[in-house]
Nitrate ABC transporter substrate-binding protein (Pseudomonas parafulva), 339 residues
Amino acid sequence: MRKSISRLAASIGLGASLVIGSLVAPAAAQAEGKIRIAEQFGIVYLLLNVVRDQHLIEKHGKAQGIDIDVEWAQLSGGSAINDALLSGSVDIAGAGVGPLLTVWDRTRGRQNVKAVASLGNFPYYLVSSNPAVKTIADLSDKDRIAVPAVGVSVQSRLLQYAAAQQWGDEQYNRLDKYTLAVPHPDATAALLAGGTELNGHFSNPPFQDQALANKNVHIVLDSYDLLGPNSPTLLFATEKFRKDNPKTYRAFVDAIAEAATFAQNDKAAAADTYIRVTNAKIDRASLIKLIDNPRYEFTVTPKNTYKLAEFLYRVGAIKHKPASWKDYFFQDEHPLQGS
């Protein structure tokens, strides 16, 4: 008998184990010299791995004459990330453009959350082990798709975007009922092991590539087919943190820009960093080959985020329509030239 998803969650240690590291209790605004960063899973967070490994925030803080204490936490899902940011548990949030647009929309005129930078351009794949599912039109009650957060994660929003293209805007959430919130590492393990009701995963690298190494898993949907090359994952913060901690914030911005240059120009060293920081059990040569994929770009400049913003406004998922991508990105000393 196939396991239910509740048994699956218990067997792979969901719940409290989603937090790797420790989140500090909600507190008052931090003084200059401290920053708390929440990230998730996958190569898309490689720039943060580089920042952490090379102590780049501390380096750029010293250049401004301050010592910066950096704390790191790991969560799964945009909802958990947004909750941590709004509760004051973290200062910089790493999550998909979907969660960013949700929190930007809900905090306008209050916390005024906006994006700080992109983490790069990467294709995200919806993969399945069900041979009958060739396109999203083939999905049925027999299918269960893992996403980081149901309805709001960038994977969920991309699935909604695809559904709207297939069946019209009024049915944009038609496939939500087939999705389940499961962290990428656990979803990949469950998909490959079989024996559960989970037979699909809207993933990110390297997890989607690990799944595709199995001959029984195939691509159903490629995010680049929907939006073109795009920046699916961003870093964001509240306006208050940015204003109250200008030197710390600037050190972070400079650090992430330096990390992007490093990762884009030295893929082997970037792969070593990923393995070292995350303790990933992945073959080094395979990882280097993966991140050297010409479809990947490590950059802080956002690309093709506005199409999703327009869509979410059009279907009523957000109440405010941004005039352009610049409405939900902070424009700092060196303004980003994105889309």
